[in-house]
Model the fold of this input.
Amino acid sequence: MKMQIPEKVKYIIEVLTSHGYEAYAVGGCVRDMILGREPEDWDITTSAKPLEVKKLFRRTVDTGIIHGTVTVLLDKDHYEVTTYRLDGEYEDNRHPKEVSFTSSLTEDLKRRDFTMNAMAYNETEGVIDLFGGIDDLKNGVVRCVGSAVERFEEDALRILRAVRFCAQLGFQIEEETLKAVKAKAGLLINISAERIRVELTKLLISDHPDRLMTAYETGITKVILPEFDLMVITDQNNIHHAYSVGEHTMKAVGEVAGKSKDGRFPTRERTILKWTMLLHDIEKPSTKSIGKDGQDHFYGHQEKGAITAKKILKRLKFDNDTMEAVEHLIRWHDYRFVLTPAGMRKAASKIGKEYMELLFEVNRADTYGKNPNQTQEKYNSLNRAMELYEEIKNREECVSLKELKINGKELIAAGFKPGKQMGDILSQLLTIVIEDPAMNEKELLIAIAKNFMPENAEKDSL
Ligand code: ATP
Ligand code: MG
Done:
């Protein structure tokens, strides 16, 4: 099998082999090449020791010398070159006690997680596939290299990675590996939140996020996201809903931001949207009550859910930006837009312009997962809300204090006393301008402000 690899990767391999070392592209990039996917990064494995690698290239970074990794910089690109490695005995289901270098490619491939990730390639030898990786790729299965139970005991993160790869590639987990996933899921308790966050996010932003249900069925979410399990077992008997909380959630997660290739939302926004949909009804189980109308209600689940979502994301060591955005979108996810220009300006003022497009998408995905009889009607309202908002943006109408044609300093210059009242006056002016954009004129606003504070008006008239 001959494949296209980037010139710079070829160059690194050639430099190494011409100095008597072995070198191959390895792991995820070989898998992706065979699948015809664009690899995220190109890793190189070599028999050369880190110091030997460093000698051969002008610009290098000591990324993880102890683990054998040197990053080679070529122009603006960088490639990780790692010495053939042998992982020693594992502690705590995650850390090899020591790593040692080996001169055997076979040993290096054996330590890798799945057959599809354990292949190497170079131009002279083609694909080195010692564990049936190509067949597994053809058949769409994720299979551990060697004994699945042992591999999961060594590093339990692999349990979640198995599901993540299924979600990214639309694959199934091979039978023995699946048995081991179920048997060993509990070991994920030993894995750091950061590593779990990375895998869960990759799973969610993939094209098959519904594979999260595999994580549920195998007992993985019970360990890493127990709140999700509660949603799965919560029914909702309500005219707006046709599905349980769990089913509704998964439909909304699948729908939001579309397929990855659509490119409608960059990765950051996609991540925020997927996590928002996953967690938007997280407090429905705890707020469920049956009303006099015989329907299930979930009063306050939006606010309570926003707080819980933030706690969950904090536990998973998310960055503040993502955490705040998800919290905010969940808080507002059920907001009913008033379909008038003033109604939409009010919405934008409360929600914040930077969140409006994301919230529209949340609303669309949420609707998609509700009662199909009402979908069209709800989409029509949403489209109208989006149109109205677009017009507000085009007319550059004011919806926030910073867009108001007057500020505190200017009020002081016009004779107002600094102090707490100033803030109240400004927010009253904003309310007026949101109602009627024509009022956003400095002189007009000063005149109105004076009306609010007669003592200022008197002083002025003296
Ligand atoms: P991605 O496309 O998300 O980068 P990847 O397969 O390249 O997927 P990485 O986490 O970048 O995944 O790891 C690169 C390679 O290192 C993998 O293909 C696999 O061979 C090996 N590897 C990574 N994590 C583990 C692990 N936990 N256990 C065993 N091998 C691993
Ligand atoms: Mg990779």
Observations:
- The first strand starts at residue 23 and ends at 26.
- The domain at 226-397 is CATH 1.10.3210 (Hypothetical protein af1432).
- The first helix runs from residue 7 to 18.
